[in-house]
Design brief:
299 residues, 0% strand
């Protein structure tokens, strides 16, 4: 029987089967993966080699560092910052406590930008660059190549929340950091009918009032203004996207870095990340609502 199944060419007229096209690996977006999966022809799909079991988690990165590993590492760093950031913002229910935490952070002076660049902006730049490289081949299509980590819906939501987060971070940093989004309104006030938006350089001496005005009174002092409501809902969407992106990213990142290898470990990791995601979502919603005018007692 062994001789019967042996593959050879010769007088017997046997044809050596063609090798199957290689898998796309972990979908890390690196240059080692083809842009499109090669379709299988009828002759290619007939011979099946069952002698060596296929590992669904194999990566085609050739044994080198996978870009998804750097995505996972920088994602963990940014995720830790997100947890701290939302937890601190939840203190907005007690403005005096929120101001106390801000007063403890900002006296760092020249050391504060160093920490921000090292722990936030550098990891964020790496994460965005690698994320765009992963996002570009498949865009926001739902039915794409087979994913070895997570379902198609989870993979699509990860990409969709990434796009939302990119837009939200650009707006958030522009309205609360040193770039001062409302500077054009100060230079050319005749371009608009009325005062410019409230966002601008963060004012640590009046931290609660500044954040509340920037989120809930971006255009004017009327909370019910449709323009203000759009900004408020955009912040809510940004928080929800950040929470999902972190929870699902940690679950898949644990597999990429080899922390969860067995099926049982992957299932437990997904459950823990889902539960933690719900807790973080609650914290984020409280942090979002804490700065609403009249939403809480002020002490």
């Amino acid at each position: 029987m062994a001789e019967w199944h042996r593959r050879y060419k010769g007088d017997h007229g046997m044809i050596e089967p063609k090798p199957l096209p290689s898998r796309d690996g972990c979908q890390c977006g690196g240059s080692c993966h083809p842009d499109k999966a090669q379709p299988l022809g009828p002759r290619d799909s007939l011979p099946v080699d069952v002698s060596i079991p296929k590992n669904e988690g194999d990566c085609a990165c050739g044994g080198q560092a996978c870009p998804r590993q750097y995505l996972a590492i920088t994602g963990f760093i940014l995720g830790a910052f997100l947890i701290v950031h939302l937890s601190v913002n939840m203190l907005g229910f007690w403005p005096s406590r929120f101001q106390l935490v801000v007063d403890l952070i900002h006296p760092l002076g020249a050391a504060l930008p160093v920490w921000e660049v090292g722990l936030i902006f550098i990891p964020l730049t790496i994460h965005v660059a690698l994320g765009l490289g992963t996002l570009w081949p498949d865009k926001l299509r739902l039915n794409v190549r087979k994913q070895h980590r997570g379902s198609e819906v989870r993979y699509w939501l990860q990409r969709a929340t990434a796009v939302i987060l990119l837009a939200f971070l650009a707006f958030h940093l522009a309205t609360m950091r040193q770039w001062r989004f409302h500077l054009p309104y100060e230079i050319a006030p005749w371009l608009i009918l009325g005062p410019g938006p409230a966002g601008g350089l963060f004012e640590p001496q009046r931290a609660f009032a500044f954040v509340s005005d920037t989120v809930w009174h971006f255009w004017d002092g009327h909370t019910a203004n449709p323009a203000n409501l759009m900004i408020v809902q955009f912040y809510l969407l940004g928080v929800a996207s950040a929470v999902y992106h972190l929870a699902n990213g940690v679950a898949t990142g644990a597999e990429v870095l080899g922390f969860a290898t067995t099926i049982t470990q992957k299932e437990w990791c997904l459950r823990v990340c889902a539960a933690a995601g719900f807790v973080l979502a609650a914290i984020g919603m409280m942090a979002w609502y804490a700065f609403a005018p009249g939403a809480h007692p002020r002490t």
